[in-house]
Amino acid sequence: LVLLIILTVNEIWNKNKYLWQCVYGSVCVCIYAIFIPIVNITPILSGAACALAILIVAHNSSENFSWRTSFLLGLLAAGLTLLKGTFVVTAIIFCGAYYFARILSLQSFWILKELVIAISSFLILLVPWAFTNLYYFDTLFYPLLGVGLVSSGGFGFAGTEIFLDNLYQYHPLYLLTLSTWLLLICHERYEKRLFINILLVFYFCGTIILALTPGGGFRYNFILLSIPSLFYLIEYFSISDKKITINIIFFSESQLRKFLIFIIVITSILMLNQIKRVGGQLFEKGLYARLLNPEHRPIQPTDPISSNYSKQRDLYSELQNMIPANTTAIVAVEYPYLFNFSRNHLYVSDIPGTTGFKPGMPFQGTPENLRQYLLSNEIRYVIHTYKGWAEINDFHEMHSKIEWVRNQVIRYFAVNKQLLGFIEFLKPVFDNGSERVFDLCMANIHPASVCNN
């Protein structure tokens, strides 16, 4: 968030030196941050800063050959991709729009040299990460390539129902992007219309294609859907002379202003409906429940302001102390962030069975198959929250119309049943009625290479 604000203020201040315009831009960034989906908020917010930086660097580039600009664009695109593999689509669309607009306007051969430099710097950062994925997961690029990953839901186009549902989720940001684009191009002092127009074309073509795929969900493409409108607003605030010239049929100046206000209001309402978790997490569960009226909704014991927070930390410390320091464990618990990750090498099994070391977790096998799989990857200890799992037989996601969602939840249940099955042939090192700690080497048969250490 701080980086987003710095980028915004720097871009506006360098062009018009108006303090209030910088304040307006910063307010827009803060409002933007509120609507970021709660899940994966850290990589999404960081990715938004990288994506905005790509557009600002591209927009401010000179008309002369610049290897520095291309090298920087490649690094930013790689940084965006490293945050979350699916962000590579955003990087390609934004950088692609820049180079396509550059080719159309300058028509010079050296632009291809710039493109090669950008791709080279992109690969410099990405190749080590890709080979790490190849080593552990048997695929160069997780999650877009699913070779060797049991989480792969297959590839191809989604059905009509999913496609229309994706477009329904996109349309508030479509409206906002169109309105901010219209606001920007109607200023007579704005000169770089070609780039923002090409960006808009790439934006719509790219997101419509994404909507046709299983990975076209709103949350996974939030940066691509939202950053262009923020970028257009920032460039609008960067214009020192706000004189509008109307080059659009059917619109007078007053009508245009009213239309833009209408679009912004409608879009805000649609966005509030789109991300219902914003109100729930930020206000009801956050400000209201934690500070204003904590008696109305009990504070979670893992909340830092809860009186039980220290007890929860002590509980997880006790669990971790059941395994020797500097050993490796897999943890399938409710609050893994309460562990001390400097003490042990911990693998967090968020949705177990979805991904893992090659050839993937044996979710279709027996508890013994899972034990052998973990030991073969030098994971000796398991910490598992088991209370309540024996009584759960269904999640509504198991009936989702999206194939990969169904698959991951089914595997989630399968692996949890395997973890529950450890009690049949392994005596737990620790059992408090809710969590169990297992030493996988306590069975009669085990791989000596791991258990002798």
Short description:
The protein is mostly helical and 453 residues long. The chain contains 15 helices and five strands.
**Beta strand count:** 5
The helix/strand class is mainly alpha
> Rg to the nearest angstrom?
26 Å
* Secondary structure tally, helices: 15
In round numbers, the mean pLDDT is 79
H and E order? HHHHHHHHHHHHEEHEHEEH
Give start-end ranges of low-pLDDT stretches. Answer: 144-154
Strand order of the largest sheet: 2-1-3-5-4
Which percent bin holds the helix content? Answer: 55-70%
Largest sheet: 5 strands, mixed
Envelope shape: elongated
Notable features of this structure?
about 450 residues; mainly alpha; 5-stranded mixed sheet
Structure description:
With 453 residues, this protein is mainly α. 57% of the residues lie in helices and 5% in strands. It is built from 15 helices and five strands. The protein has helices at residues 2-16, 19-34, 41-59, 67-83, 88-106, 110-137, 160-185, 193-211, 222-237, 253-274, 276-292, 309-320, 367-376, 403-421, 448-451; strands at residues 328-332, 345-348, 381-385, 430-431, 435-439. A five-stranded mixed sheet has the order 2-1-3-5-4, with no helix packed on it. A hairpin with a 3-residue loop joins strand 4 (430-431) and strand 5 (435-439). The longest helix has 28 residues, at 110-137. The chain starts with a helix and ends with a helix. The model is unreliable at 144-154 (pLDDT under 50).
